[in-house]
Amino acid sequence: MKSIPLDYRRNLFPNKGSHRAFAHKPMTQPVILVLDNDDGLGPVAATIKENFGVSFSLMSTAPFYHVIENLYVVKTPEVGSDHKSCIEDFLPKEWLNKELKGKKFHPKPDITKQYGKEVLSNSVIKPNADKIDFSGFDPLLKRIVAVINDHTTKRA
Question: How many Cβ atoms are within 10 Å of 7's Cβ, its own excluded?
């Protein structure tokens, strides 16, 4: 994930002497990186701070971070005293506890005992989407709306 902002800038706004920028680069809509607010955030946050001067961390609580042009970062909303969260935290617990072939979900699974995010998405969430209450995602969606509003204001 940490290479995405660097590639974004390199391909849209290259330095002199480097390759040519993309000829077609629509910038009317924001590009939003949604990141889990967990231990994996550190390398992405460090890369963005070093290369774009934008700081955020596990403990920061802004609804979004504007990186460059129409590129933004939205962290999953902070949960608990350690502020850590991942996208799955916003699903109802009953679906996270769904057992499949004797295994339960774990974000970093031991595949002999648990299943991971891909199985959760494809075998639990997708086939049951019409039965799941997704209102737990409202705080995350509000952050995304805040980005859209911010970008609209910057374009005006």
Answer: 10
